[in-house]
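Need residues for this backbone.
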């Protein structure tokens, strides 16, 4: 008597399933390659106990996939075919830029003939999740891919859950297009941006074995902090240190690995921290300074120190503050006007000699002066 596989699905998912995110919701799923032969595209078969739909976005092993097939469904599970998104495309609506994960092909499979059809040179087919954002896409809209501009010349919404765009190579507009960052018409609506990303725990942090800590990251744009930035986290060795898409780090095995943190839409803006997995024992302190990296002459700003033990913030330690010019010159182009607990207020000098200079604010742990951190504060003209 043949035993049905379906009643055992819960067992297989529990024992062999991997954690994935389906439309940003964590789920267990069984994943296998869709074919045994090497293909130009990365296709996989996904099976999950939760509902799957054509057009669902699946985050799997630091890669993003789009479910491109119809979904088989029975009482125990759903099954579908997914393809790795090989491009991220930025579409611009009068200055409102939205990024989309996409499957881009220079050839496609014909259901009528059963053959692979090569598209004309300079033409591509783009498949996206059909959602509230992509519904706003219009004909003639432009976007960049690998620093080349394309224009949408056709749209197909007949496949439920997916929108397909027929696109042709367009001409570069150097006056408006941000070619380096693949954004069409960017400078038509906004000024240039200067981004900076800072991991507040410093360059080295510790996490206890089988426990977690949260990475704290600050992203600045032209000196102003960005609220809720889109950030990507990658571990150099997930078998030692794992990190999820929200920056939560877990110590898997004793040892060390690096975590790279980058702006999702500007991947050249990044920072790296070395995570060391340790057992419970002595204190391992680190300090982070939170505050604006740019200060205008004659104005004041407050800064706060956060103290961590094994990467977890503690509140029974204190710091001492000091201030100096970045070039060690005299007089100092600023002063400490107030210091309360682990916070301090800095006032920038008002003389013209302070413009385009920089201050170094240092926080030193009172209980261990060997532990300190510096923050560079650039001085800019008030006007």
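Answer:
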């Amino acid at each position: 008597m043949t035993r049905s596989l379906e009643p055992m699905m819960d067992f297989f998912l529990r024992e062999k399933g991997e954690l994935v995110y389906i439309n940003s919701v964590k789920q267990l799923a069984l994943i296998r390659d869709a074919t045994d032969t090497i293909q130009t595209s990365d296709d996989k078969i996904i099976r999950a106990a939760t509902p799957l739909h054509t057009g669902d976005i699946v985050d799997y092993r630091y890669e993003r996939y789009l479910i491109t097939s119809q979904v088989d469904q029975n009482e125990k599970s759903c099954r579908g075919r997914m393809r790795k998104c090989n491009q991220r495309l930025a579409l611009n609506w009068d200055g409102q830029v939205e990024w989309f994960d996409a499957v881009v092909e220079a050839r496609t499979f014909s259901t009528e003939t059963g053959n692979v059809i090569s598209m004309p040179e300079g033409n591509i087919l783009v498949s996206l999740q059909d959602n509230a954002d992509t519904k706003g896409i219009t004909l003639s809209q432009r976007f960049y891919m690998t620093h080349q501009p394309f224009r949408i010349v056709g749209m197909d919404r007949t496949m439920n859950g997916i929108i397909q765009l027929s696109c042709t190579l367009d001409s570069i507009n150097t006056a408006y297009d941000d070619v380096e960052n693949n954004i069409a018409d960017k400078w038509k609506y906004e000024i240039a941006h200067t981004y900076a990303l800072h991991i507040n725990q410093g360059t080295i942090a510790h996490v206890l074995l089988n426990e977690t800590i949260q990475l704290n990251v600050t992203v600045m744009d032209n000196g102003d902090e960005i609220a809720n930035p889109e950030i990507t986290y990658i571990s150099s060795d997930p078998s030692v240190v794992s990190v999820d898409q929200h920056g939560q780090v877990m110590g898997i095995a004793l040892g060390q690995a690096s975590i790279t943190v980058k702006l999702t839409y500007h991947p050249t803006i990044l920072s790296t921290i070395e995570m060391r997995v340790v057992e419970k024992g002595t204190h391992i302190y680190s300090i982070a300074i939170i505050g604006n990296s740019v200060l205008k002459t004659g104005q004041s700003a407050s800064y706060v120190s956060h103290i961590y033990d094994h990467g977890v913030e503690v509140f029974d330690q204190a710091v001492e503050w000091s201030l100096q010019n970045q070039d060690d010159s005299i007089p100092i182009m600023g002063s400490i006007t107030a210091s309360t607990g682990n916070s301090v207020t800095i006032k920038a000098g008002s003389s013209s000699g302070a413009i385009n200079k920089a201050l170094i604010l240092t926080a030193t742990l009172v209980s261990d002066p060997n532990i300190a951190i510096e923050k560079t504060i650039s001085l800019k003209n008030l006007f």
